[in-house]
């Protein structure tokens, strides 16, 4: 049962929107005189990509050239006073067979700052909030903030995107600056919207699994910045438990623990970024039939960006993903599962060019050489014998944001 | 006559040297501060700090990314490129955790807005300062 795709505007989301609207109405007149002049803001983005692959399907029928990668979003924010802000964003995302473009509430939150001074800021977000995992997760659908046309799949899997995207609950934040040092801590607890992409990734699609979250997702991020972000280091985590029912096996639960370690160095026109992800997956129940499926997925990428000129940027990225960090190239699991090893890892080289002719407009072109298919969606490539080990990926993107 | 010419020439030279690349932070006359640390200036312009110590909301004014004045402000005072600053704003705007600064088109508009908006902060290359607008030293 998909909570995100099929029922995008569920009761909780509608409630947030009504709450936001009524707060806007009642507060506007009372505080208008003390508010900054742009306390109500509307922003948005419109992104269209073209994807061409030599083999395999990625974001649609990419072997023929696919335009099934489109992101449209709009948000509104209202600052009642320096300590209280409400904001909400609607998102429509087409991503091949993974997302069909139906409208979802990306976030809808109230942000209250308990304490603010020159050095410190403490507060909480309430509602549907974006999950701050790694450097990019919370704005992963916004081309203007992404490190390339696609998110580095080694960390930010598109096939299980919703699992770590957002939470319905509460998020606490604490920001502390001292001279050149800045520490920022975010902690969250809430319900995660689970969708078909997650169901078809953590259990074989033939099992027709349906999953519900057991308890709440907990997680957060600790970020350290030195000298205004010249050096950035972060540790992030999200933990959740999925209750699963299938048409064949007895029910069971899947424990997921998602860790990301991030580092970035900015110097003049150079930016170097590295992130490492480790995700232990523990299958329990299922009459012990899936105990041998327990694994620790891991992956990393290294990316260098160079600003050529005020409008142009080059990027080079290498990334690698493994289904089992102790069986990196899938040789053991290949003998157990009968699938060729390249189903259990991926290696990608990506070279790209970015052009930002104006503040609002961005164009990107990228070429990737790929070995392995682990990051490809089971929904888009259901037949294992049709998957190809060595393939190339070419993509173009145009994005407008305001 | 000759000395008058020379006087004008030196006055012009002085103007040119004063305005070449020099950029200063300016605040509305009512803002109760004299100096700001660099890390506080970064918090203000990255839109994380939203009020002055007396509780008055901060109103940030900036010029376009491609203007020379904004580029020198970003580089000299914040220590980042304009596109890096914009990405930092976008990361907050599209996660719902912050708002964008107000944009002005010309330096004159910047001075007018900072002078007339309570809690305003911006930057200028000009020397002309009155009681409605004050320069702030960055420590």
Per-chain topology:
The complex is a heterodimer of chains A (402) and B (139).
Chain A: H1 11-31, E1 40-53, E2 66-81, E3 84-95, E4 99-116, E5 120-130, H2 161-165, E6 166-178, E7 181-191, H3 196-202, E8 210-226, E9 231-245, E10 252-267, E11 270-285, E12 295-307, E13 312-322, H4 331-337, E14 345-355, E15 361-372, E16 390-401
Antiparallel strand pairs in A: 1-2, 1-16, 2-3, 3-4, 4-5, 5-6, 6-7, 7-8, 8-9, 9-10, 10-11, 11-12, 12-13, 13-14, 14-15, 15-16
Chain B: H1 2-19, E1 24-28, E2 35-36, H2 38-45, E3 59-62, H3 68-78, H4 82-93, E4 102-103, H5 107-116, E5 120-124, E6 133-138
Parallel strand pairs in B: 2-6, 3-4, 3-5
Antiparallel strand pairs in B: 1-5, 1-6
Walk me through what this model shows.
The complex is a heterodimer of chains A (402) and B (139). With 402 residues, chain A is mainly beta. Chain A has one domain (11-401): Porin (Beta Barrel), CATH 2.40.160. Chain A is 10% helix and 54% strand. In chain A, strands 1-2-3-4-5-6-7-8-9-10-11-12-13-14-15-16 form a 16-stranded antiparallel beta barrel. The radius of gyration of chain A is 21 Å and the shape is globular. Chain B has 5 helices and 6 strands. In chain B, 40% of the residues are buried. The N and C termini of chain B lie far apart (45 Å). Chain B has helices at residues 2-19, 38-45, 68-78, 82-93, 107-116, and strands spanning 24-28, 35-36, 59-62, 102-103, 120-124, 133-138. Residues 10-20 of chain B have low confidence and may be disordered. In chain B, strands 2-6-1-5-3-4 form a 6-stranded mixed beta sheet. Chain B has 139 residues and is of the alpha/beta class. Classes of the chains: A mainly beta (402), B alpha/beta (139). Chains A and B meet through β1, β2, β3, β4 and β5 of A and α2 and α4 of B.
Q: Keywords, please?
A:
heterodimer, A: 402 residues, mainly beta, Porin, 16-stranded antiparallel β-barrel, 4 helices, 10% helix, disordered N terminus, B: 139 residues, alpha/beta, D-Maltodextrin-Binding Protein, domain 2, six-stranded mixed beta sheet, 5 helices, 6 strands, 17% strand, globular
